[in-house]
Amino acid sequence: MTLTDAQIRNLLAMEYQASPGPWTKADDAHGIRCPAQGYSITGVSIKGIILEENRDIIIAARNHLRALCEEVLRLRAASDHTRALCQEVLRLRVANDDLEQRNADLHEIVGQRFDFLEQREAAKDGALRESDNGDGDPA
What we know:
single chain; mainly alpha; three-stranded antiparallel sheet; 2 helices
């Protein structure tokens, strides 16, 4: 199950309103001690059966919930930022590919123009040589 940012913020609000941590194991076998408030919660049970594991997970959740929630929100923000950067890199790569293609097209056009001009000059030179050879008069 994925929690939404709103659900995580709700957990943070609940954590803020709870008795301050850290919570610890109480002196009795199954209780939770809230040292900042000076009291203990006893009888952590399911269907009347007191379970040490219930106490331990409640204590761990109380003591680490804020850090976990804040880390998830931080990682999500970093992920959003990274995603935006990747999209910009992709956009720039596409633009660069387009510019490279346009550059190649321009080089081809310039090459064709250059070839055309060389052929025209060669034809002009050939015509001048023929006129020089035909009657001996360059003009």
